[in-house]
Amino acid sequence: MLLGCIADDFTGATDLANNLVRSGMRTLQTIGVPTAPLAGKIDAVVVALKSRTIAASEAVAQSLAALDWLKRQGCRQFYFKYCSTFDSTPQGNIGPVAEALMQALGATIAIACPAFPTNARTIYMGNLFVGELPLSESGMRDHPLTPMTDANLVRVLQAQSRARVGLVPWPVVAAGAAAIRARFAALEADGARLAVVDAINDADLHAIAAACADHLLITAGSGVAVGLPENFRRAGLLPLRADADELPDVPGLAAVVSGSCSQATNAQVAHWMESGRPAIRIDPLAIARGEDVAAAALQQASPLLPSGPVLFYATATPENVKAVQSTLGVAEAGALVERALAAIAQGLMTRGVTRLVVAGGETSGAVVQALGVVALKIGPQIDPGVPWTATQGEHPILLALKSGNFGSRDFFEKSLKQLDRTAGTR
Ligand code: ADP
Predict the structure, then answer these.
(1) Residue 177 domain boundaries
(2) Do residues 289 and 319 touch, judged by C-beta distance below 8 A?
C-alpha cells in the first residue's frame, strides 16, 4: 500500500478516492478506522472520518488513530484531506490535525492546499477563490457550522495552528517543482512548518504534487491528489494501471433510495417519475404516526423489483420539508426518514437487490451503517465526484452514494445503465 489518506468527512473521502482511481491507483475507502486488516490488492486507502466540526481534541485523537492504522498497513506517504473551501473554525480542525499528524510522522514541513481548479476553487497569493468570488464573499460566508469570513488562508490557518504558516506564491508554483522545493527549504529555514501553496490550474497541482514527492504528509483538498500517482510511477512503485476502477461483477436487482431534498435530487426524482418508472413515496408524517412505512413500501415494491429498478423517495420540495419540520422538528424529521430509508435498504438486500443508488450525504451514512459496510472499493465515475463502489466482503453489493447536489438530471437511470454496460464488456 502506497498512500494512506485521512478524510474529515464521508463524501470528501469519496471525492479524493475517485481522483486517485482516475489517476490509476486501486483505492479503498473505509468507514472509520477499520478493526480488521483489509482484503484485496490496493494501492491507496482513504479512511473516512466525521471530524470536520467535532471538538479539535477529538478530531486529533481520531486522526491519530487512523494514522496509526495506516502506518501499520505499510503506507509510505500520508494525506490529510479537507474541504476545497477549507471548512474550519478558529479552533480547527485543519491546523490542529495537520500539526498532530506531522508530529506523529516526524514531518518537518507540510503543504496546505485546498485548490481544485476543476471545481473553480483556486488560490492566489494565499487567497482562496470560489469561482470569481473570494471565499469570504462566497456562500461559505454563511455556512451554519464553519462560516468562512476570511479568504486569506495563511491568516486562517495561522489562527488555528501553533506552528508558523508560510506561503508558496503562484509565481513560484508556476516556475515548477524545483522552484517550489527551493521555496519549501527557504520557508523551513525561516521557521515555518506549514506552507499554504497557491494553485490556479491543473498544471500547478501536478507541479505541487511533484514537489511533495518526499513529503511524509500532504494536507490538501482532493485536487493535489491527481499528481501523486505519477510520483509513485516515477519511483517505480506503481505500474500503469488501466483497471484501477475495476469492480466485481455483481448480478442482481437494482433500486434507488433517495433522502436528499436538494435541488439536484428533486430534479432527479422528477426525471425518474416523468419517464414512468416505479416510485414509492416515503411520508415522514406517516412514520411519525407510528405506521410501518418501510415495511409497507417494501411490500409494495416486491412484485415490481424483478422487472426493473424501483425508487424509494422521501425527497420533497423546500416548502414541503419546512411544513414537515415545523410539525416534527428538524432533527426528528431527519432521523425518522433516515431510519426508514435505512430499513428499506436492509429489506432490499434480503429481496435480491445488489445494486443500490443512494441520494443524500446523511442518508448515505445511515444506509451504509445499517448495511454494516466497513469498506468500499472505488470503481468508475458516474458523474464528477460520484463513483460506483463495491462493499468489501464475501457477498459484495454495488453502491453509488451521491451527495445532495451532485449528478445530472438523469443520474439515477444513467448510473444503473452504466453498470449494465460495464458488466456487458467483461
Ligand atoms: P443532502 O446530501 O442533499 O444534504 P442528506 O441526506 O444529507 O441530503 O440530508 C437530507 C435530510 O433531510 C436527511 O436527514 C433526511 O432524512 C431528511 N429528509 C428527507 N426527506 C425529508 C422530508 N420529506 N421532510 C423532512 N426531512 C426530510
Answers:
(1) 3-234
(2) no
